[in-house]
Write a structure and sequence with these properties.
The protein has 96 residues and is an alpha+beta fold. The protein has one domain. Helices cover 74% and strands 12% of the residues. Strands 1-2 form a two-stranded antiparallel ribbon. The radius of gyration is 28 Å and the shape is elongated. The termini are far apart.
Length: 96
C-alpha cells in the first residue's frame, strides 16, 4: 500500500510539473485593492494553497472540540475505574 501511495504521489507531481511547464500564459488577477499579472501556474498554486489553509482553519475548531471532548471522556473513564476499584476493595456484607 505504501508503494501505491508513493507511485500516485510521484505521478501527481509529474503531472503537476508538466502542466506547469506547458501552461506559461499570463493571467490578470483582480483583487480588492487592485490587480496583478501572474503566470497561470503561480495563480493556480496560490489558489490551492489558500484553499488548503482555509480548510485547515475551518477544521481547526472541530478538531479542538473533539480533543476537549476526548479529554473529558478520559477523565470520566478514570473516575469510573477508580470508583470500581474502590468498590472491589470493600468487604462483602451478608444480608443476615
Amino acid at each position: 500500500m505504501r508503494y501505491v501511495r508513493l507511485a500516485l504521489l510521484v505521478i501527481f507531481m509529474l503531472v503537476a510539473i508538466i502542466l506547469t511547464w506547458v501552461n506559461t500564459a499570463s493571467v490578470e488577477l483582480h483583487y480588492l485593492l487592485g490587480s496583478v499579472s501572474l503566470p497561470l501556474p503561480i495563480a493556480l498554486w496560490a489558489a490551492v494553497v489558500i484553499g488548503v489553509l482555509s480548510g485547515f482553519l475551518a477544521a481547526f475548531g472541530m478538531v479542538m472540540k473533539m480533543r476537549s471532548e476526548n479529554a473529558r471522556l478520559r477523565r470520566a473513564i478514570r473516575l469510573a475505574e477508580t470508583e470500581v476499584n474502590n468498590l472491589r476493595s470493600l468487604p462483602i456484607k451478608d444480608g443476615r
